[in-house]
Amino acid sequence: MIQIQNVSFDRAGKNILDVTELTLEAKQTIALIGPNGAGKSTLLSLMARLLPLQTGQIRYDYLDISSTSSRVMARKVGILQQHSHFMSRLTVQDLLLYARYPYHKGRPTADDHKVVEQMLAYFELLTFRTTFLDELSGGQRQMALVAMVFCQGTDYILLDEPLNNLDMYHARHLMTTLRRAIVDWNKTIVVVLHDINYASLYADQIVALKQGRIVFKGPPDQVLTPDSIKALYGVEVDIIEHQGKRLSLHF
Amino acid sequence: MRPFSYWLLALLSLLMLALVSLLVGAYAISLEDIFRQPDMANVMMSSRIPRTLAVLIVGSILGIVGCLSQSVMNNVFAEPTTLGTPQGIALGLLLTSVFLPEVGLVGTMLLGAGMGLLSLLVFFALLQKLTLSDPLQLPLIGLVYSAIWGAGVTFLAFEFDRMQMLAVWLNGDFATIIQGRYELLWGAFIIGLIVYWMANQFSMLGMGEALAKTLGVPYRALVVVALMMIALATSLVVATVGMISFLGLVIPNIVRQYCGDNLKHSLPWCAWMGASSLLLCDVIGRLLTHPLEVPANLVFAVFAGTVFLVMLWRGDRRAF
């Protein structure tokens, strides 16, 4: 369970996030949606301790992020950011092995190699294991980065717009793989999504943010209505039911 | 071929090159001479062997240091020369030699390293404030940055009549290396071994601050340790033979093409390639205007400049 209380964040004298109370149940996929500049990435960065908390508390199963050491937190929560700038001439298997750092501290053991093998197989990356990251296509690269976060072996995984720049096939492939992996590996995922229909199809819970505040929260088939989407994005949409899921037509 | 056979080939070629380096110089020495003529054995022991060892150590440590700089700065164009480190070190050496001449060679070298570390830390802090839209901006900023340190050190050298020393520090040349004048370089050799021993940790720096932090890597502390290694090793090189510019830039970039950014894999190859290319340049320098010599730094600059231009020509900013 993730508990967020009284978290507020100012940048350059301007308030960009103010969440009084948000509780996210474990073993679920939680989609964060909202217009650009709503504070989704800021919230995720605060949750991952990439930004220092200015006020309030964030707790993962009663582990308070401001009083827990980063070594412990590195085994509790992992994040995949939107832009990861790093020296990208790493092979896929090296990348996955790096994600085991919280356990091996730079001296990988047989256990770490075992986890890497497992994840390479699970995310269908065996054929690319010795390929350099900068030689992969966008879809393969994203899959490798997702596998990396899973290798970290954390209960909680935060993903910031993982579908960015992916084509229809790869976006769908990534989401179905994620959906399966969450169940198989017992994860709790918080994912920022721009496509409301992906949120509706794959998330258990939707949390909508606008101007740094939570507008609504709940299961997709309850909270996705033409009115709520109009309130969130300022766009008139039709909501249709397809195989028991709500889809928004916003064209 | 298995990696082992690559290494065998690499070591053999380096040995051959070292042998050539032992025999080439103002006096050409043949293998027989060493055993027949005591003079020649003397030349060997006091000049040729120290010189060859010095080149090997300098070449390999600068390759390693360049590779490490690129991981720390997260930029493929980073290396001591593009970060203004030699100028910072020269300032430290100069100030020490003027105001604290009694600290001796090791003390001077350490104070030089201290100033080099300061210049690296300031540059690193500066880099955190900037968002580079193109990695190529780093050497441009570095150029301006080293010019600032360079202006300061040149002014002081001029004031204290030490211009000649400054020229020696900034232009690597092995002609003056004799027994008793290069042994400090073994310190750089040891630093090279330490960097390799910590390669897995230093590789994490290349992941960038955010990713490293979420993996529980003590990022800041590791950065400081890495910068200390870079400053110390570079200071040892500058104080004994003088800087070889851009070795740390071109060698690691050629190596990463094949070995990637995992330092555990790439560092040994950076060391090998740095050592063998510098030795080749030094031997060429000895032959070009025989019996006079062209400094190794100059010969290497021609080679490095060409490689650097090719890098830019290909326009691939991520990797060479």
From TrEMBL, chain A:
GO terms for molecular function: ATP binding; ATP hydrolysis activity. GO terms for biological process: iron ion transport. InterPro entries: AAA+_ATPase (IPR003593), ABC_transporter-like_ATP-bd (IPR003439), ABC_transporter-like_CS (IPR017871), P-loop_NTPase (IPR027417), Siderophore_ABC-ATPase (IPR051535). Transmembrane segments: none annotated. Pfam families: ABC_tran. GO terms for cellular component: plasma membrane. Belongs to the ABC transporter superfamily. This is Iron complex transport system ATP-binding protein.
UniProtKB/TrEMBL annotation, chain B:
GO terms for cellular component: plasma membrane. It is a multi-pass membrane protein. Belongs to the binding-protein-dependent transport system permease family. FecCD subfamily. GO terms for biological process: siderophore-iron import into cell. Keywords: Cell membrane, Membrane, Transmembrane, Transmembrane helix, Transport. Its main location: membrane. This is Iron complex transport system permease protein. GO terms for molecular function: transmembrane transporter activity. Pfam families: FecCD. The lineage of its organism: Bacteria, Pseudomonadati, Pseudomonadota, Gammaproteobacteria, Oceanospirillales. It comes from the Bacteria. The chain crosses the membrane at residues 52-72, 93-126, 138-160, 181-199, 219-249, 269-288, 294-313. It is found in: Cell membrane. It comes from Marinomonas aquiplantarum.
